[in-house]
Each structure stands twice: as C-alpha cells, then as structure tokens.
Amino acid sequence: MKDLQTYYIKTYGCAMNYADSARIRGVLKDVGMQEVENFEDADVIILNSCSVRKQAEDKIRGWSIKLKGYKKNDKVVVLTGCMAVRKDRKEGSKKNYAKEIKNKNPWVDYVLDIQDLMELPELLGVENFNREKKLYLDIIPEYGNEFLVNVPISTGCNFFCSYCVVPFSRGKLEHRDYYEIMSEVEFHLKNGAKIISLVAQNANSWRGFKDDQKIDFANLLEDVASLDYDFWVSFVSSNPMDFSDRMIEVIKDNGKIMRGINIAVQSGSNRILEKMNRKYSVEEFEELVSKIKKEIPDIRLTTDIIVGFPGETRGDFQKTLDLIKKMEFQMVYVGKYSPREGTASADLKNDVGIEEKKRRERILKQEVNSLREKFHNDFVKKELDALIVGGRKAISYYYHEILLEEPVKEHYIGAFNRVLITKATLSGLVAKV
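Request: output the structure for the sequence above.
Response:
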C-alpha cells in the first residue's frame, strides 16, 4: 500500500454521524494525516453512511460513478456508519452486511464499524498509533467549525419503531457516562465552542448516575447549561414518547438552552402511529406541544413526517396535514416512506405508489412553506441574538439559519451578536450585524 498522507470525509445522515466523523478526524490527525476539501486530492476517502432511507444508501452507491476514473490503487475507500453495521431483526441473527456490501460495491476497500474506529490506522497501514491508549468515545474529536460541536450522549435505540433501522445499525441503547459527557463538553468550551449540541438517536432517553444518584436527561441538560461559559446548548433528536414536564421546566428556566426544538411526530393518524409502533397518540402529542408552547411561548418547534407509510389512506394523510396546520410547526422535515430490509414494516405491503407519495409530499411541503413564510416574515425588522460562525453564515438563538448581507470582519466570527433581520426567505433569514 502506498504512503497515505491525505483523507477526505463525506458524512450522510444525522447529528450522530457528524459526531462520529469528528472522531474519525481526531484519529487521523493523531497519525499525522491531513484532511483535504476535494476527494480527488485524497489518498483515503471515508464515507460515513446513513441507512434510514433507501435514498441515503443510493447516495453511497453513486460513488462508484465518481470513482470510475481512478485506478484501484489510486485511492483507499472506507465505508463506515449505519450501512456498515446493519443487522437483521430476527432474534438470534447476527447477520452483518459488510460482506454483502463489498460484493455489491467492489470499489469499497474496507467496511468499518464505527465502534471499531481504533482499527482504522491499522487498516490503512499506519504504524504510529497506540490503539490501547484510547476508547472510541475518548478520542478528541476534530470539527470543521470549532464553534459548533456535537457531543454524543448515547448510541442505539430501544424503541423499535417499525420503519426504523437504527436499532439494527446502531444496536441497543447504551448511555454514555455522565462525567465523560461533562468532561468533553468542558473541553470544547475551553477551546472556544459556542454551541454545544447533545446528540443521540433519542436524547430524552439518556439516563445515568451522578454522585451515585440516578439522574435523567433533564438533569444532564440542566448541568450542562449551568457551566460558567458564554455558550448555548441544544439537543437532538427528541422523541415525544419521553419528553417530560421536568424537561420543559429546565428549558424554560435556562436561558442558555436554545429555543429551537425538533419533536418528531411522523404521522397525524393514530392508526398509522400504531402501525409505526410509536408509543403515543395524536391527542397526547397535541397536549405535549400545547404544554411546551404555553410554558415557553417563544419556542420554535419543528417536526418530522413520513408520508406513504404502508396502509396510509388519503384520509390518514389529511389528518397529518390537519395536525401540521393546527400545531403551526415552523419547519417540517418530510420523507417519503421506503422499506428498510430488516425492519418490521418491511413485511408490510408497500401499497402507496411512488407518484402518490410524491403528491402527498408536495402538498405537505406547500403547507409547510406557507407556515414558514408567515413565521419568517414576522421576524423582518426585528433584532435577534445570533452566533456568527464564519463568512456570511450565522445561527440564531432559535436555530434559524441566517445569511448575512455581507461577510463580516474576523473579530465577529465565533462571537454572539445582535443581528437585524432584513429579509425572509423559505430557507431562512437574511440579516446584517
């Protein structure tokens, strides 16, 4: 194998994958490799994959075209992330898709479970790395922007929603130690981080021990927010199944906790929620959202919706549309259902045609765009607190993406500033410092 000096990382999927990529950077920095912006310039290409939808896996397979002009020994390709570790849901089965992936994608050199990250330097033939000195979560992560940091607090999930591959790709829920989390958060704050995101497949599910006492996510969030630094804290993802009153109280009472929260509802039909194996009703979800809005009036709520789930009728879809209108979400992430091998819903008849899925997606996005336009226009000529993260990009206290009218001077970057909103667009807000 030739001497490997440079690497390129492409990350797909959720905040957990971006946190994993930061740890990959930490390992490769430790062995002296340099990251490059273009894959053409890299000796090693690392693809951190997502398996939530077929479309996400198709993006990985599309790399066979991008790499077609390169000889096999020109580049080393490593596939990691959810595609690399997906297992079958049948009890007792240990089926791993690594061999199958390599058979179907011969351009992939190595398939790596992210939990085996310590093996990456060895795979690449790097000699000067002491595997024994670190565990996966002990690696010092390297982020592309040091002001925005994802800190993983758990991995895996025990909910087994019928459409979701996460329990088979990430495994059962495992909580990270409280003191490890707090230590990593402080490390990043000391090094200039300004927004700390606590990330997990479902952050609310985190449980741990502090001074030998059992604590939950509300306690952890409160303790992070109490650290004596100038920063904001957020969390993703958030499930309505265990969003407690105590969490609402903690968010309300702590100004450092950002006023932008995503709570995934997935459907506005109780019949479909039951088929999805979601552990709440539409009525319970509405009660939760109403409670949050009452206690934290300036909250910006977003949600996730799946259209075209097996058995979803036009009546079911209308209920989802009605829920979005009633709850007035400021952003909705819409996905068309696609069966994932190994999940319970894959056994159901995928009876909503692709054109009907597209139609429902289009109608839902039109409604969402209308709501976003209304909310975004309400901010025009108002001032907001925002973190300037570089160039013309900023992030508001409510987690809006803000485009600055012109690039700012260097001393503004990495600092909180007041910005005046001058224009509203569907994608975000335009402002000047």
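Residues 383-432 form one domain.
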